[in-house]
Amino acid sequence: MTGLLEEIQALKHKRDAQNGKWDNINPEHAARMRRQNRFQTGLDIARYTAAIMRDDMAAYDADSAKYTQSLGCWHGFIGQQKMISIKKHFNTTQRSYLYLSGWMVAALRSEFGPLPDQSMHEKTSVADLIEELYTFLKQADAWELNHLFRDLDAAREAGNDVQEKTLIRQVDEFETHVVPIIADIDAGFGNAEATYLLAKKFIEAGACCIQLENQVSDEKQCGHQDGKVTVPHEDFIAKINAVRYAFLELGVDDGVIVARTDSLGAGLTQKIAVTQEAGDLGDQYNSYLDGDTVTNAADISNGDVVIKQNGELIKPKRLASGLYQFKPGTGEDRVVLDCITSLQNGADLLWIETEKPHVGQIAGMVNRIREVCPDAKLVYNNSPSFNWTLSFRQQVFDVWQEDGKDMSAYERSALMDEKYDATELGQLADEWTANFQRDAARDAGVFHHLITLPTYHTAALSTDNLAKGYFGKDGMLAYVAGVQREEIRQGIATVRHQDMAGSNIGDDHKEFFHGDAALKAGGKDNTMNQFG
Predict the structure, then answer these.
(1) Recorded GO terms, molecular function (predicted)?
(2) Whole-model pTM?
(3) DSSP codes, 287-300
(4) Largest CA distance in the chain
(5) Catalytic annotation present for 222
(6) Cα(274)–Cα(281) distance, rounded to whole angstroms?
(7) Looking at residue 226, what is its pLDDT?
(8) CA proximity to 243, closest of 338, 101, 335, 347
């Protein structure tokens, strides 16, 4: 990007060429406004963030310690505050993304009201949230740059040349809050054409990465619910193709596709795959169908379906719903086949939905996939649906028990009990939990760690704590001590909420537009001044 001073000079030449008609325009003000609105369209964002993801994937391939992370956000303000916080604490947004969860859109953003994660919400609501998130992230850029510009004006007024040069350098080296969003398209909300049309909406809103799952669109269930139904690989490949075509049509050639498999927990399929010859992809899919061997025509009733499986005629087990059942214990094998097939047919990253956070379990599947696809990488859901405390305490318990350690002081099924918090087992389990992302990135091929719906839970928890105190004996102290005082002491910018909402930016624009006649909101009587 051109430096601020160079951009000001270029705009001055443009103004001066207008023979006085633009004399009211200050080139530096125009340059500042350009800086505060770097991205003109969602496609600009999608192309910019796709390049970031590709660079991050290459960096991870070279060094697994360089994994990426995100938190699910259900509102633009939540995403904005997350990125402001990351910049404040770590001085960079590198390897930090946003995750857009279909679960939270269904639960919090649907006009029908709260819904389960079953693709019943409006299909365009996810694209709308992508646009909203980027609107707030761009506003975070404008807000932070506005403070730099005001400091620059103050340095000039004070005649502090050193500070002025420092601030100009900070403007030139400014790191945007705009980061990649991994956007959940569920199972595509329909057939491949519907998937393509919706993917275009996602991309036009700014999404560089789309997550697609191999469930049946009209039977979709949350990955942590029962009753999941998968589709044959050919159906899923068609939707991967649809998303890729959407990226290419819109000029986002580096767009990233995450192929999610729910096969580990899915025991059903909607239909029998088409197969042309023994051993082809359809035949492999059908080989996992549960069924009864057919020895003669009398074994077949009206309406029964019969297929050839491993050289034998079998009658697949069919439920009253018309769905077919997979053989018990085949989930992991189906996951491996799903992942290899997706990577060989255009997917960039994998998502394996598991029932617990266990590095060994994930690594076991990834290692099998990497025998065929050596660069396989995962996006992994650090799900709030897991009982993390109990899971890791039980993992420690099992390892200690295998090692022959005396476990009489612990009851495995009751390890959630608070009495175990300070024990050696409880503390080691917390250590394993803290190291989970690092360990899984190193040992299980996890490139990106996300929590799908953390801000759903944080909103509920913080609201409960505030309501308990405010409507109880603490009254106003509950807000003052629990919220405002902590905002001030921790340097949370929202304590000056008028500024965060854009009042200072608006005041500066008024001055640009009206000059000395501007009627500004940030004068001496603005109560926001109490916070400095």
Answers:
(1) isocitrate lyase activity; metal ion binding
(2) 0.92
(3) TTB-EEE--SGGG-
(4) 99
(5) yes
(6) 9
(7) 46
(8) 347
Radius of gyration of the chain (CA): 28
Nearest to 262 by CA among 158, 168, 182, 351: 351
The position carrying tokens 């050639």 is 253
Task: Please report the domains of the chain, with CATH numbers, ordered by start residue.
Answer: 1-36 (no CATH), 39-272+329-396+436-461 (3.20.20.60)
Residues with Cβ within 8 Å of 140's Cβ and at least 6 positions away in sequence, in order, are 80, 83, 84, 177
69/65 Cα distance (integer angstroms): 12
Q: How many CB atoms lie within 10 A of CB 292?
A: 13
φ/ψ of residue 100, rounded to 5: -115, 110
Range list of H helices, 318-423: 331-344, 359-370, 388-402
CB-side neighbour CA atoms (13 Å) of 108: 19
DSSP helix/strand/coil, 12 = helix
Low-confidence stretches of the chain (pLDDT < 70) are: 116-117, 120, 217-227, 518, 520-532
Tokens of 51: 């390049």
Q: Is 184 annotated as a binding residue?
A: yes
Q: Cβ distance 356 to 386 under 8 Å?
A: yes
Q: Is the dihedral of CA 521, 526, 531, 532 positive or negative?
A: positive
Sheet with strand 291-293: strands edge to edge: 291-293, 312-316, 307-309
CB contact set of 270 (below 8 Å; sequence gap of 6+): 216, 219, 229, 230, 231, 323, 324
Provide the CB-side half-sphere exposure for 124 (13 A, CA). 5
Matching residue, tokens 């690989």: 233
Q: Which of 94, 123, 96, 97 is nearest to 110 (CA)?
A: 123
Residue linked to tokens 């003669």:
296
Q: Which ranges constitute the DSSP H helices of 371-502?
A: 388-402, 424-443, 454-470, 476-479, 485-490, 497-500
Give the span between the Cα atoms of 339 and 343, in whole angstroms. Answer: 6
List 73, 222, 339, 373, catalytic entry = 222
Q: What is the pLDDT of residues 124-143, one digit of tens each?
A: 999 999 999 999 999 999 99
